[in-house]
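YM 10:42: GNAT family N-acetyltransferase sequence, as discussed on the call
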Amino acid sequence: MDQEAVLALFDRQMRREARPDEPGARVERVDDVVRQVGPGDGWNGVLWSGFGAAAPDSPEAAASVDAAIAEQARFYAELGVEAEWKAYGHDRPADLGARLTAAGFVAEETETLLVAETAGLALDVAAPEGIRLLPVTEEAQVELVERVHDRAFDGGRSSIGHQVRQQLAADPATVPAVVALYGEEPVSAARLELHEGTDFASLWGGGTAPEWRGRGIYRALVAFRVRIAAERGFSYLHVDATSYSRPILERLGFVALGTTTPYVLKATG
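YM 10:58: structure's back
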C-alpha cells in the first residue's frame, strides 16, 4: 500500500468531500472548515479543517485559526447540540488540539486510523464453534445489536440503534451490522458503513459481552464485514481503532496511517 497516497485519498473523499452520513443531515463548507449538522440524535461536528501546511507563524495567522474555531463553537452552541471536532494527527496547525481545548472542546481517547485493502485481507476466518453470524437486514434484528452493546459497554443502546436504523432506512438492501449468536443469545455485534461514491467502507461499534471476549469472535466479525465490502466493490476498509482492537486488526492486515482524536463540545443550555 502507498500509505501517503491512501491517506491523501482518505482525506479528500471522507473528509473534504464528505457526504451527509444519514437522511436529514447536511454537510456545510464554511471557509476552511467542513462540518455536519445532524437531525435529531444525529452526529454534529467538524470533519475537516484546512488551515495550512505549517503552524501559524504570525499573530495574524494564529488569530485566524482561533477565530475559525470560535466560530464553530458559537455555531453549535447556538444550535444547542453537542458537537465533535474530529482531529487527525497530521492536521495543521500542529497545535490544533491545544487551540481546540482553549476554545472549550474536551479531548477524548485518541485512536489509531487503520486502513487495509480489501483485496489483501484474509476472508476465510471462521467463527468459533457454536457461534453463528447473522447479518442484520431488518428492524426486528436491531434489538439484538442493542442488547449486545448494553452488555459490552454498560449502555450505548440508543446510539448504535439509531445508527443502524438510519442505515436500513436509507438503503434497505444494505447490511449495516452483524450479530454473533450463541443459540439465540447475542454475544457480539459490529457495524459496517458503505460510503457510496468513495473507495472506502468503514468498521464501527465492535462490542463483545465480557464472558465471550478473547475467543476469536471479533476476528470473525471483521472478516464477515470485509467480505460484504469487497462484494460491493469497495477497495479500502478503515477503522478508528482502540488499543484493544488495534493488535487484532493489524494481524489481519490493517496498517496504521495516523491517529484521530475527538474533541467534544458539550451542549449548553
